[in-house]
């Protein structure tokens, strides 16, 4: 096949091999030949706008952009010459003169700026052109990041990333000539955008700091940071994180390009909720005395728990865990389960059927990237699994994949759907419409969630499978179940009981001792009080122990608070929705007197 044909060309006198269809830049890079770039990014469509990667082709009077020019067998390429150097330097000088690049006060100064780096390489120490000094605005209305047009070089890396990776096309270029600007939703702002998902991929793509993370600004130079790779704790997808740290604090979080499913892309949760949300940290044990929580030592806190438990030996003791805990913490809880009356993990309604003995999934990324139809049944990927939502958007917008949404709440995906209904009709006309939409598909993917586990959801699933059985050609859909809890699968596999209705579970017998193992879960402390009876139930307890990383309404009601490590301080593993075991590695030292969840559980029930 032509796509795999090997070609040979000469670059700077070196004979290089490549594949038909590759660009000159790709062949040069594969053969360890450096060509400067600014607008080019791996896995993005080439643009050729910055002209930094221009090269000379023997026999042609023109220079061509290596990133957008196909490599031709037998051609002779020159990547370095006085002519090319002068042209590239002139390009850099024009870029510096066009906007207000004031390097000394820019947080990207001295190491992190792609424009500045190329200026150093090309010996730019002065500008021969008059500075334009345009009066350009800043947009800092977004929650996590801002846009400073003064630093923008219009490389369109952010535009192409937003369109091709996140799949929303929030960003674009408006106006003409020197008035060109990157715009949000055609002259909206990040704060008012109806399409921006706050994934931050545009910020990660920006080479100059025109797009910048508010929480990262002036925390330190990225190139001087320590980088640790770990796993995102925010959902069961299990994306890889590359965490940049300096002076024992997180400076920035990016996606790990080597992560098998995310390939470097993150959603809002992984990119920002892991570190850029302000939360009040618990760093030492606390014991309630005269109605107020007071700091105490670990020995005092543990002794108080044992003293109260021993004083009332006949009572119902319960431990309820967050689904964010590691496998190791789940195993530690299972080992001490015989010292308690009941032990469970708090799941979302109907999630138990998804996580009890699930079948391992294979080739999920390939299935998502090749799908020509997506069927969403009782799942909320835009809310719960942001990376999966980006795959759906890309498939619909770039490959014209079909999209059917059934039994799901409204979301941004509805605008791309061929069919989107909240309540599924059982009438023939509706299912005939579904069959028509799916008539020619060959590689369908069915994404199903907790609402697919209800009687109605199961009935709809059976109808869908019947549609595919009646098709004359094409494959049956790839079935991908998406739970909600980060490590629900791993904790249930460790032997913890799946608890969906906490009220009924706790009311089975009057509870006098309750140990809530929240870890670094920043949602359960709020969710507990969504039902009034849960708040009332706390008043009946003889002892409430809350093991947590952050302050919450639950810690405010606790008799004893035990400080737990956050995801950034943990060592362990989690099991993602595919059934893969993924590592958690500590990226910063443990703060204060916090301890790992497993160690705390073992100490409490020693």
Descriptive account of the structure:
With 606 residues, the protein is of the alpha/beta class. It has 4 domains: 2-80, Ubiquitin-like (UB roll) (Roll); 131-273, Alpha-Beta Plaits, CATH 3.30.70.20; 286-347 and 487-604, Rossmann fold, CATH 3.40.50.740; 362-481, Dimethylsulfoxide Reductase, domain 2 (3-Layer(aba) Sandwich), CATH 3.40.228. It has 20 helices and 28 strands. The chain has an 8-stranded mixed sheet with strand order 15-14-26-25-24-16-17-23. The chain has a 5-stranded mixed sheet with strand order 2-1-5-3-4, covered by helices on one side. The chain has a 5-stranded parallel sheet with strand order 20-19-18-21-22, sandwiched between helices. α19 (553-557) links the parallel β25 (543-548) and β26 (560-563). The longest helix has 17 residues, at 82-98. It is globular and about 90 Å long. It starts with 5 loop residues before the first strand and ends with a helix. 45% of the residues are buried.
Summarize the entry for a quick read.
The protein is an alpha/beta fold. It is built from 20 helices and 28 strands.
Low-confidence parts, pLDDT < 50 over ≥5 residues? none
Report the β-strand fraction as a percent range.
15-25%
Rounded to the nearest angstrom, the radius of gyration is 28 Å
Helical percent range?
A: 25-40%
Count of β-strands:
28
Give the biggest sheet: 8 strands, mixed
Which CATH first-tier class of the largest domain would you pick?
Alpha Beta
Per the principal axes of the C-alpha atoms, what is the gross shape?
globular
Give the helix/strand class: alpha/beta
What is the total number of structural domains? Answer: 4
Give the averaged pLDDT, no decimals.
Answer: 94
Distance between the first and last residues' Cα: 66 Å
Q: How many alpha or pi helices?
A: 20
């Amino acid at each position: 096949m032509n796509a795999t044909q090997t070609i040979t060309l000469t670059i700077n006198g070196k004979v290089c091999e490549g594949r038909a269809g590759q660009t000159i830049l790709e062949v040069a890079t594969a053969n360890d030949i450096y060509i400067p770039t600014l607008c080019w990014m791996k896995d993005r469509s080439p643009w050729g706008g910055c002209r930094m990667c221009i090269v000379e082709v023997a026999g042609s009077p023109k220079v061509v952009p290596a990133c957008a020019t196909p490599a031709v067998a037998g051609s002779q390429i020159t990547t370095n010459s006085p002519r090319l150097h002068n042209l590239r330097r002139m390009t850099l000088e024009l870029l510096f003169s066009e906007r207000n690049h004031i390097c000394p006060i820019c947080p990207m100064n001295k190491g992190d700026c792609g424009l500045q780096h190329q200026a150093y390489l090309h010996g730019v120490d002065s500008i021969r052109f008059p500075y334009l000094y345009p009066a350009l605005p800043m947009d800092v209305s977004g929650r996590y990041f801002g846009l400073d047009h003064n630093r923008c070089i219009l490389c369109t890396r952010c535009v192409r990333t937003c369109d091709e990776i996140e799949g929303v096309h929030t960003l674009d270029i408006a106006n003409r000539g020197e008035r060109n600007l990157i715009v949000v939703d055609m002259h909206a702002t990040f704060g008012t955008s109806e399409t921006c998902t706050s994934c931050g991929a545009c910020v990660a793509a920006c080479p100059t700091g025109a797009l910048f993370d508010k929480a990262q600004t002036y925390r330190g130079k990225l190139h001087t940071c320590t980088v640790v790779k770990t796993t995102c704790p925010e959902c069961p997808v299990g994306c890889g994180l590359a965490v940049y740290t300096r002076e024992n604090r997180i400076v920035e979080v990016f996606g790990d390009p080597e992560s098998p499913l995310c390939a470097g892309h993150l959603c809002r949760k992984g990119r920002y909720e892991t570190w850029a949300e302000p939360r009040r940290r618990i760093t030492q044990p606390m014991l309630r005395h005269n109605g107020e929580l007071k700091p105490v030592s670990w020995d005092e806190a543990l002794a108080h728990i044992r003293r109260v438990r021993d004083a009332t030996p006949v009572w119902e003791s319960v431990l309820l865990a967050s689904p964010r805990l590691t496998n190791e913490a789940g195993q530690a809880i299972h080992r001490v389960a015989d010292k308690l009356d009941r032990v469970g993990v708090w799941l979302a309604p109907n999630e138990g059927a998804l996580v009890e003995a699930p079948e391992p999934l294979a080739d999920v990324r390939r299935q998502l990237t090749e799908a020509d139809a997506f069927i969403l049944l009782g799942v909320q990927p835009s809310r719960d699994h942001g990376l999966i939502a980006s795959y759906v958007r890309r498939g619909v917008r770039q490959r014209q994949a079909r999209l059917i949404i059934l039994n799901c709440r409204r979301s941004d995906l509805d605008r791309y759907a061929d069919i989107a209904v909240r309540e599924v009709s059982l009438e023939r006309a509706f299912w005939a419409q579904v069959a028509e939409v799916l008539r020619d598909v060959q590689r369908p993917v069915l994404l199903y969630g907790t609402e697919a586990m209800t009687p109605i959801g199961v009935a709809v699933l059976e109808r869908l499978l019947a549609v595919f059985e009646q098709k004359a050609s094409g494959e049956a859909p790839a079935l991908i179940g998406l739970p909600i809890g980060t490590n629900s699968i791993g904790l249930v596999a460790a032997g913890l009981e799946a608890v969906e209705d906490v009220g009924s579970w706790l009311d089975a017998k009057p509870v006098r001792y309750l140990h809530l193992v929240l870890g670094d879960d920043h949602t359960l402390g709020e969710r507990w009080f969504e039902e009034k009876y849960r708040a009332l139930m706390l008043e009946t307890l003889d002892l409430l122990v809350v093991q947590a990383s952050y302050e919450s309404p639950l810690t405010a009601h606790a008799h004893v608070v035990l400080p737990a490590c956050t995801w950034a301080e943990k060592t362990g593993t989690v099991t993602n929705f595919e059934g893969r075991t993924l590592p958690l590695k500590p990226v910063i030292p443990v703060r204060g007197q916090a301890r790992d969840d497993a160690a705390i559980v073992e100490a409490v029930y020693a």
